[in-house]
């Protein structure tokens, strides 16, 4: 690591928050390449999946890896999609449907990664079947909630509606525009798994009282529409990016490596809040490359600092077109890792959370008001 010298003949294998933090000697790297060529190489580490993902050894991604002290098995860098009994809500028909949804996504994951030639056919058929089954399940689950008089029914129904009418169509569009590329397929699978995990573990288990639901705020439709319109306009004017909505209930669901900029601030009304701008890594690289007229292929200190400046500029432009965003004082700025962002939202979901797609990557914008804000994490400036 950067704390200890290992000599001059070395190169960086990990960048964290724009700083080079981990290195290997050239001799070690050559030995690793030989091991990789001659035998099955399976890294085993105490690191989390997010921390392991930051390591770039400049060799082919190992077929398998054990992370989280051996607790999670990765295949081609991704955790395999599996149902876990911890997700059970205790209602057999609902649990059976959830297991089926995971089974569909798992089959898609295996097929997409192992059968590139027929990916388009597999994705078309798979997403059609997933959508049909999900819509049927949502209707049955909503009927059950009504039958037991569940108080959170209306908010829960809106989450289903957003996923059915916005997220799934947007992901279908992404697949079609990319001719069902591997990247778009992984976007689809990543968001499916992240949404299913979060929705079942929290919102669905809340139906039977196993946990408290986190989506407790119902945004005003006119305010949401105004914010959505403002972000789309600013993206076009400032970055020449066409964007379209993927979700109006975004709460940090994983869509790939991301750069997150968080501002802790006070509104003109004296209300404390946190505002999050979340850039998919490839979108961040595209925006910074265009802004600085230099091609960047990885997130480094320059990219991180530029994203900070551009995020502040973006926020100020959004303020011009949307009354919902009115910031008087910015008290602290942070760059968060994916893991830190998820931990922030584990403490409570945002009041407003929008996720957009563009041809250059995903972008999320969230507002979390004071009563929903948790402890500070991340590196401050």
Detailed description of the structure:
It is built from ten helices and twelve strands. With 381 residues, it is of the alpha+beta class. The strands form three sheets. A seven-stranded antiparallel beta sheet has the order 6-10-11-8-7-9-12. A three-stranded antiparallel beta sheet has the order 3-4-5, with no helix packed on it. A two-stranded antiparallel sheet has the order 1-2. α3 packs antiparallel against α4. It is globular. The two termini are 23 Å apart. Mean pLDDT is 85; it is low at 372-381.
What's this, in brief?
By secondary structure, this protein is α+β, with helices and mostly antiparallel strands. It has 10 helices and 12 strands. Helices cover 48% and strands 20% of the residues.
Question: Count of helical segments?
Answer: 10
Query: Tell me about the biggest sheet?
Result: 7 strands, antiparallel
Low-confidence stretches: 372-381
Biggest sheet strand order reads: 6-10-11-8-7-9-12
Helices and strands, with pairings:
Blueprint lengths: L9 E7 L2 E7 H13 L10 H5 L10 E4 L4 E4 L2 E2 L12 H23 L4 H29 L5 H25 L4 H26 L13 H19 L4 E4 L10 E10 L4 E9 H12 L8 H21 L5 E10 L1 H9 L5 E7 L2 E9 L9 E2 L1
Helix pairs in contact: 3-4, 3-6, 4-5, 5-6, 7-9
């Amino acid at each position: 690591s950067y704390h200890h010298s290992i000599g001059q003949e070395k190169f960086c294998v990990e960048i964290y928050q724009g700083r080079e933090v981990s290195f290997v000697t050239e001799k070690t790297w050559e030995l690793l390449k030989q091991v990789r060529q001659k035998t099955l190489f399976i890294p085993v580490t105490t690191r989390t999946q997010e921390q392991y993902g930051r390591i770039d050894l400049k060799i082919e991604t190992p077929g398998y890896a054990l992370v989280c002290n051996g607790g999670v098995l990765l295949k081609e860098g991704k955790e395999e999609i599996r149902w876990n009994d911890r997700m059970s809500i205790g209602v057999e028909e609902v649990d059976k449907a959830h297991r089926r949804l995971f089974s569909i996504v798992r089959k898609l994951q295996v097929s997409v990664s192992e059968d590139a030639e027929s990916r388009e056919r597999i994705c078309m058929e798979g997403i059609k079947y997933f959508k049909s089954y999900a819509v049927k399940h949502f209707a049955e689950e909503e009927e059950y909630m009504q039958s037991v008089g569940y108080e959170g029914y209306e908010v829960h129904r809106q989450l289903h509606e957003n996923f059915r009418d916005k997220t799934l169509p947007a992901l279908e569009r992404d697949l079609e525009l990319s001719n069902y590329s591997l990247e778009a397929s992984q976007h689809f699978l990543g968001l499916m798994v992240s949404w299913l995990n979060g929705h079942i573990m929290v919102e669905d288990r809340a139906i039977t009282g196993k946990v408290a639901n986190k989506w407790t705020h119902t945004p005003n439709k006119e305010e949401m529409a105004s914010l959505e319109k403002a972000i789309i306009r600013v993206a076009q004017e400032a970055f020449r990016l066409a964007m379209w909505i993927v979700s109006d209930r975004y709460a940090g669901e994983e869509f790939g490596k991301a750069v997150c900029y968080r501002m802790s601030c006070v509104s003109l009304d004296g209300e404390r809040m946190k505002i999050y701008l979340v850039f998919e890594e490839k979108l961040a690289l595209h925006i910074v490359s265009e802004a600085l007229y230099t091609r960047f292929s990885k997130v480094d200190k320059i990219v991180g600092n530029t994203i900070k400046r551009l995020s502040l500029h973006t926020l100020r432009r959004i303020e011009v077109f949307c009354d919902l965003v009115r910031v008087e004082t910015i008290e602290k700025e942070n760059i968060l890792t994916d893991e830190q962002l998820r931990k922030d939202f584990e403490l409570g979901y945002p009041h407003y959370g929008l996720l957009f797609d563009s041809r250059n990557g995903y972008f999320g914008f969230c507002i979390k008001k004071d009563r929903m804000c948790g402890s500070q994490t991340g590196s401050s400036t």
